[in-house]
Amino acid sequence: MQRVIPIVIFLVMLSACGPSQAAAGTPYRLYTHCGVVYADFDGRRFYAEPPAGDGSGNPPPRWGNPYDDGTMTLLDPDTAVFTDPAGNRAVFSTHPARGIPTIYPCD
Predict the structure, then answer these.
(1) Which domain holds residue 36?
(2) Whether pLDDT at 8 is above 50
(3) Which residue, of 9, 10, 86, 91, has the greatest Cβ tally within 10 A?
(4) DSSP 3-state assignment of 8?
(5) What is the pTM of this model?
């Protein structure tokens, strides 16, 4: 019984710390020069759901170009959300509904 108590205390402390860190988000610089298409985060590639742009290979209006600074929050193992101070928001998935897109180089 004595061994159970330290493990329980550790798990309670761990669960109290984990969600608050995820909710705060991680500072993130999103590459937007070719539109909001993908993000490399948490050691993986996430794809925008849906991709966003101005139709000419640029990010949507009000987004930074070539980068937009904000925060990335991991919602679950396969979903992340980017937000910036201007109120822009993009959802990213490791398994996009439309399938993994081909990422073409742009100028």
Answers:
(1) 26-93
(2) no
(3) 91
(4) helix
(5) 0.76
Q: How many other CB atoms sit within 10 Å of the CB of residue 106?
A: 10
Are the C-beta atoms of residues 42 and 74 closer than 8 Å to each other?
Answer: yes
The predicted structure's pLDDT at residue 96: 93
Rounded CA separation 12/19 (Å) = 12
What is the C-alpha to C-alpha distance for residues 77 and 93, in angstroms, rounded to an integer? 9
- pLDDT top residue among 10 and 52: 52
Domain count, the chain: 1
The residue assigned the tokens 């493990």 is 7
How many DSSP H helices and E strands does the chain contain? 1, 6
Identity of the amino acid at 94: T
Tell me how far apart the alpha carbons of residues 81 and 89 are, in angstroms, rounded to a whole number.
7
Check whether 58 has a pLDDT greater than 60. yes
Q: What's the confidence (pLDDT) of residue 7?
A: 40
The SS3 of residue 18 is helix
pLDDT at 21 over 80: no
* DSSP SS3 for 40: strand
**Domain annotation covers residue 85:** yes
